[in-house]
Design a protein that fits this description.
Distance between the termini: 12 Å
CATH topology: Rossmann fold
Low-confidence stretches: none
Number of strands: 10
Number of helices: 3
Radius of gyration: 15 Å
Number of domains: 1
Oligomer: single chain
Helix content: 10-25%
Shape: globular
Amino acid sequence: MTPPDILFSAEQIQDRVRAMARTIAAAPLVPDIAMPILVGGFVFAADLLRALAWEGVPLDVEMIWLRSYGDKRVASAISMIAGPSEQIAGRHVLVIDGVLDAGRTVAKAVSIIQAAGAASVQVAVMLDKQRPDRIANADYIGFTVGNDFVIGYGMDDAGKYRGLPYIGKMPS
């Protein structure tokens, strides 16, 4: 297997996460609970939550588990494995995910969280592919990328490469 091309190093990622945390902490509406989307958002969420705590914004955390890729590179129907509890009602929620592609997963998460009674929902993603046909947007973006298939830093290829400390793109 050819190793992936590195798009963003571990150092670049950490610098960007810290900058995002400063921006979120200084925003007019600061979230009070985070809802990372499992599984792709868990690495970014862990780093962002620690960086926010350093900025004086320690968030409560509740996970939402949605699945759209399974073992393929093409998104399929989105299924909810675990959703929000009653703790979401009236709260200012920060949804955290690894990558915003077509936006279907983020849109589904936001819809579920709003239906659970959240007072507001903001979205932070590490990567935004900036697709013109996307159906959701992010309030906070780590990096913009092209339409390459990305792996590492929580993002995978059929379950592989999630633990890489950098973000790479798979060779064509």
